[in-house]
From TrEMBL:
PANTHER family referenced in this protein's UniProt entry, alphabetically: COBW DOMAIN-CONTAINING PROTEIN (PTHR13748:SF62), COBW-RELATED (PTHR13748)
Start and end residues of each CobW C-terminal domain: 229-320
Keyword Transferase: no
Pfam families found in the cross-reference section: cobW, CobW_C
Protein name: CobW family GTP-binding protein
Record flagged with keyword Nucleotide-binding: yes
Amino acid sequence: MTTQQIPVVVLAGFLGAGKTTLLNHLLRSARGTRIGVMVNDFGDIGIDAMTVAGQVGSTVSLGNGCLCCAVDASELDEYLEVLTRPELRLDVIVIEASGLAEPQELVRMVLASDNERIVYGGLIEVVDAAEFAATRSRHPETDRHLAAADLVVVNKTDRVPPEQLRTVRETVTGLAGRAAVVEAVQGRVDPELLFDRVVPEDEITGQMSIEDVLYGSGEDDHAHPHAAYETVSLATSTPLHPRRLMAFLDSRPEGLYRIKGFVDFGTADPANRYGVHAVGRFLRFYPEPWPAGEERLTQLVLIGSGTDTAALRKELAACEQNGPQDTPDEHSMWGVLRYVPGTEDEPEPDAS
Ligand SMILES: Nc1nc2c(ncn2[C@@H]2O[C@H](COP(=O)(O)OP(=O)(O)OP(=O)(O)O)[C@@H](O)[C@H]2O)c(=O)[nH]1
């Protein structure tokens, strides 16, 4: 089921791009969220961050050298096995690839894992805005890495003048194809781009002051550059048409990075609701029986960068069924079922 699977995020980028800085930022700003990490070396991870990372102990350190050279698929599975133990109650696992690793290899290893408690959480490429041109000329494989990414973080924007940043961003966006592209200083991206933050109890019960509402609630505001991405939500009691939803998903626009929630397909499958999990080009549906007494609602959240939110809202609304004459036929679920794990013709996600 969607809610129980732990997303495994692969964090890649060339030497010095800011992967560890970003990881430390995630660990610091995660608060109630429990993050497991796999890195080559714990040396660079801050002591305060280690209080979170420490829950999994040194067992996750993969030793020196390139992660994907040092670890074959069975070893990766071994570490995932440790990190997904229920007693650790981790909400997300981040694998930091060594600066020289081929990230696509790691992604393939995660996708090939038969650990049922995990789900692929996306490939994030960190780019050094100041060194981008030089890195690209020294390492032509940069282009391939960017093309495989689901989210590109253009980091160190403080080190380049606006003009140069625009050029870097344009080049990156061109190479990254459908990936979402966000800018950052010191790796400070909103953790919610990567995973669902668990809201700590004091935030739920605590009262918000007017300042909180206007300016956010304090210390890690600068860590939540909300302008970096857009969110579109849909909550409707009208069932969605499976064919139209699949047409929308199959042609989802560039920059639409994550989709999560539940779908009601009405009479097309009255017994089940369908959990949706999409990150980059990766898409899965998880049918599960409707909980007894639960209102039949479709609830979706779409997260993207550089997307046309008005158009997304319109396209989503067009997926709703229009009365009895629009009732889906018996074959209309086939497109959806292709993305249910364990079905015979489950598509291979594009990790090339
Ligand atoms: N000016 C500036 N420096 C940054 C930024 N982000 C990271 N750095 C610095 O860049 C250096 C490299 O950052 P790391 O996070 O260690 O990079 P990495 O990608 O993990 O490096 P490797 O582990 O060697 O692959 C460190 O000295 C960071 O403090 C940023 O946004 N601006």
